[in-house]
UniProtKB/TrEMBL annotation:
GO terms for molecular function: methyltransferase activity. GO terms for biological process: methylation; rRNA processing. This is Ribosomal RNA small subunit methyltransferase I. Residues 68-239 form the Tetrapyrrole methylase domain. CDD domains: RsmI_like. Keywords: Cytoplasm, Methyltransferase, rRNA processing, S-adenosyl-L-methionine, Transferase. It comes from the Bacteria. The keyword S-adenosyl-L-methionine applies.
Length: 266
């Protein structure tokens, strides 16, 4: 008699609220569908960007839906640093992270959750190496519904949502940043492709000032800050208008100190 193979578990991609590191929080059930919260509550095995943040998120989940396993008993493994900080999508032939060992519980029949500190894992966040490993092992990958800041910002920008690119962080150093801004602007104006990028919140004001000063007057710049939080801000206007606004009220730039997405285009 042939013994049937033990069913494998799945890899669930778990979105989290966009309020990581913020002073204010939205109720969890206001930003995540109940079905997502229930799926999270049933898990007990995680691959995480940060274990401490994951435990804090699970405590918020427990306030809405009882956990099948207590926070203290959850199995949480952090992504390896090379996949976490640098990613592994470099030039062709570059070494890639082999994350298959992290999915051993799934091969034993347990569902595994992949989670980052904010938003959807593997989208402007670490995790793609684990998703790739799941596909290589023949595991089912299930993305759960929840906030994705890039898509929310793009929808609210008034820019081209049919043709766009996310380019990560811009350089910090002034000359290199100016060159990159000019490159992205030329690309956007030539092709119609919206360019999306992000910055660490405490540098948002400096980046906004640089964009307002260095973009051509008619280039449209959108900034979406604090999305899904109690007081979100979304403004989209030509660079000349941004310059006028910031010249009249320089402190306005400092108001954009929450997690933000920047977008520029025609």
């Amino acid at each position: 008699m042939t013994v049937p193979a033990k069913p494998t578990g799945r890899l669930l991609l778990v979105p989290t609220p966009l309020d990581h590191g913020c002073d204010s929080f939205s109720p969890l059930d206001a930003v995540l569908p109940l079905a997502t919260i229930q799926a999270v509550a049933a898990l007990d095995c995680w691959v995480s960007e940060n274990a401490k943040s994951t435990r804090a998120f699970l405590k918020r989940v427990a306030d809405v839906c009882p956990l099948a396993t207590s926070v203290q008993e959850q199995q949480i493994t952090e992504l390896p640093r090379e996949a976490h900080k640098k990613g592994d999508h470099g030039a062709a032939g570059a070494a890639r992270v082999d994350a298959r060992a992290l999915l051993a519980p799934a091969l034993q029949g347990r569902d595994v959750g992949l989670i980052s500190e904010a938003g959807m894992p593997a989208i402007a966040d670490p995790g793609s190496s684990l998703v790739r490993a799941a596909h290589e092992l023949g595991l089912t990958v299930v993305p759960l519904s929840g906030p994705v800041s890039l898509m929310l910002a793009l929808a609210a920008s008034g820019l081209n949502g049919q043709h766009f690119a996310f380019v990560g962080y811009l350089p910090r150093e002034g000359a290199a940043r100016q060159q990159r801004i000019q490159e992205l602007e030329k690309l956007a104006l030539r092709t119609g492709q919206t360019q999306l990028f992000i910055e660490t919140p405490y540098r948002n004001a400096a980046l906004l000032q640089a964009l307002a000063q260095q973009l051509q007057p008619g280039t449209r710049l959108a900034v979406a800050s604090g999305l899904t939080l109690p007081a979100p801000q979304v403004r989209s206007m030509p660079a000349k208008q941004w310059r006028d606004v910031l010249a009249k009220a320089p402190a306005d730039a400092a108001a954009w100190d929450q997690p933000a997405v920047f977008a520029l285009g025609a």
